[in-house]
């Protein structure tokens, strides 16, 4: 089976302090997201191979390490 996903790997930020206005939140947890990336990671966990084309962002190595 061959599957192609096209999209971005993004960083989701979740507030550590619940029930506070966003401007009062002092810390966040970071998680990788993006629908295409989530599907690619899930398929890789099932044993499919994947390839990538990193964009011009500053931290492609950190993102790739997290999804590898």
Q: Which residues sit in consecutive blocks of at least 5 with pLDDT less than 50?
A: none
**What letter string, H or E per element, gives the SSE order?**
EEHH
pLDDT averaged over residues: 81
What is the strand arrangement across the widest sheet? 1-2
Helix content: 25-40%
Tell me the number of helical segments per DSSP (H or I, 4 or more residues long). 2
Number of strands: 2
**Rounded to an integer, what's the Rg over CA atoms?**
15 Å
Gross morphology is elongated
Strand content: 15-25%
Class per helix and strand makeup: alpha+beta
Major beta sheet, specifics? 2 strands, antiparallel
Distance between the ends: 20 Å
Number of structural domains: 1
Brief summary of the model shown:
This protein has helices at 35-45, 60-67, and strands at residues 10-15, 28-33.
